[in-house]
Design brief:
The protein is of the alpha+beta class. It has a domain of 316 residues: Penicillin V Acylase, Chain A (4-Layer Sandwich), CATH 3.60.60.20. Helix content is 35%, strand content 21%. It has 15 helices and 18 strands. The protein has a nine-stranded mixed sheet with strand order 1-2-5-6-7-8-9-10-11, covered by helices on one side. Helix 2 runs parallel beside helix 5. The chain is globular, with a radius of gyration of 24 Å. The termini are far apart. The relative contact order is 0.12.
Length: 468
């Protein structure tokens, strides 16, 4: 073969290779247009950052598509928790989501949840719209069931969270600061580690923590581009639910997205209030340098606000009228977690007046001082909660702790709110780790959680900000 023939045959071969590559590119499926601009980042110190943008349907599709694995996993936990030891199967909650909640959900958030379902389906998930709605409503099911069963006695609602908000003479720079830790069962809390950066087609940009599949934060810590920061703690031992009202998760998301003032927030949360997941909402307005506490019961709603002061949250019912009419909470039992933590918050605010900054806020969330026992030692009465749920009883606060308590922590000062950023720590920020296998060996009564209960290690404080 001469040189010319070799060269010609080589070029023909190369041409065939180019043709094969071109055909492969042509056959490669195009990225769905609904995913434009959306992305997720590798996990960082236990957190997964997700950026979503566009119309409600696009934001939902991106959420379902990018977090399909986490949503599937989280839904298994919610289904297990809701049905374990219950007379109700998951279909009951799917039906309630469809027949009771859906008629009271406005189109914007219907579209977003349908988008989540569509994104999940695109990744091969079998979860559908009613699963998505039922998962979003999970914080309210306990309230709904009490109303559904028409039980006259008041029951204890699960306690979640310690939080504070402060401004003026209480903070080091005289500006607003807000902080919160989430208390729940470890089996779900170890998954409450998504940082959502959402740029909706309408309303304000949001940076919030959240549970995979939720359109709201759920434990409700977030900042928006209008300079509003929001968090809450549930009201202990609360009873009352209006199934004809707007689901709490819808109002919470709407308020995060559309509030440019404390007045906006209060108006949105009160409109259609159903009593579900009744909370003390703590709000910071960076622009007005004002903080507020909206105690949102079903019958009793009170708004306190100040430019120089602080509000604290420990699942404590602030209004005595609300406590009497809508709870069976004992305000005089200082061994009660909410009371003990309320006392501790008051101590810390007084002792640190004029000095409170981000570093102190983080230290507060790791606090282990028990005002009832008057000594240091982590338990369910300390701001960093370690709860014993074992059959030994609620009074058995010594280690080993049950698989519940503080699961993650967040804080933001005025500068962070202005820059749409926050600092977060997954797990107990006090440094205590939870080891699932060890705990299950000692407490086989929690074996029903074993397929889904993981280790929950204490992670360092980490700063997250909106994508530029």
């Amino acid at each position: 073969m001469n040189r010319r023939t070799f060269l010609r045959n080589s070029l023909v071969g190369l041409g065939g290779a180019f043709l094969e590559v071109s055909c492969a590119i042509a056959k490669r499926p195009k990225r769905d247009a609904r995913l434009k601009g959306a992305f997720r980042l590798p996990q960082k110190n236990g957190w997964t950052f997700v950026h979503l943008e566009g119309t409600p349907a696009e934001v939902g599709y991106q959420h379902g598509y990018l977090l399909s694995r986490e949503i599937e996993d989280g839904a298994k936990v919610k289904i297990l928790e809701q049905t374990h030891g219950s007379r109700y199967d998951w279909q009951f909650f799917r039906d309630a989501a469809k027949n009771m909640m859906w008629p009271h959900i406005e189109q914007e958030y219907r579209d977003e949840m349908q988008g989540i379902s569509d994104g999940l389906r695109a990744r091969g998930s079998k979860l559908d719209l009613w699963d998505v709605v039922a998962v979003n409503g999970s914080m309210e099911w306990g309230y709904y069931l009490r109303e559904y069963e028409e039980q006259q006695q008041k029951h204890s609602a699960a306690e979640h969270c310690s939080a504070f908000v402060a401004t003026g003479s209480y903070t080091k720079d005289g500006k607003v600061i807000i902080a919160h830790n989430n208390w729940t069962n470890y089996i779900e809390g170890e998954r409450w580690t998504i940082v959502f950066d959402i740029v909706p087609a309408r309303g304000h940009r949001i940076l919030m923590d959240g549970f995979p599949g939720f359109i709201h934060s759920g434990d409700d810590f977030g900042v928006n581009s209008a300079g509003i920061a929001i968090t809450e703690t549930t009201i202990s031992h609360f009873a009352g639910y209006d199934p004809k009202g707007i689901p709490e998760f819808v109002r919470a998301r709407k308020a995060m997205q559309y509030s440019a003032s404390i007045d906006d927030f209060a108006r949105i949360m009160k409109d259609g209030n159903n009593g579900g997941y009744a909370n003390n909402w703590l709000i910071a307005d960076r622009n007005a340098n004002e903080v507020a506490d909206l105690e949102l019961g079903l019958k009793n709603v009170t708004l306190w606000r100040t430019n120089d002061g602080c509000f604290v949250g420990s699942n404590f019912p602030v209004s005595p009228k609300l406590a009497q009419e809508e709870t069976n909470f004992d305000l005089k039992d200082m061994g009660e977690s909410a009371n003990a933590r309320h006392v501790r918050w008051k101590q810390l605010m007084a002792e640190n007046k004029g000095k409170i900054d981000l570093a102190l806020a983080q230290r507060f969330l790791a606090d282990h001082y028990d005002t009832f026992e008057k000594k240091n030692g982590p338990n369910e009465r300390t701001l960093c909660g370690h709860i014993d749920l074992s059959p030994r009883g609620a009074k058995a606060w010594q280690p080993p702790y049950g698989p519940a308590g503080t699961v993650q922590n967040k804080a933001a000062d005025a500068m962070m709110i202005e820059n749409m950023s926050l600092t977060a720590a997954a797990g107990h920020c006090c440094g205590i780790d939870f080891k699932a296998a060890e705990h299950l060996r000692q407490h086989p009564e929690f074996d029903w959680q074993s397929p889904l209960l993981h280790d929950m290690d204490s992670q360092p404080w980490t700063v997250f900000a909106i994508a530029k």
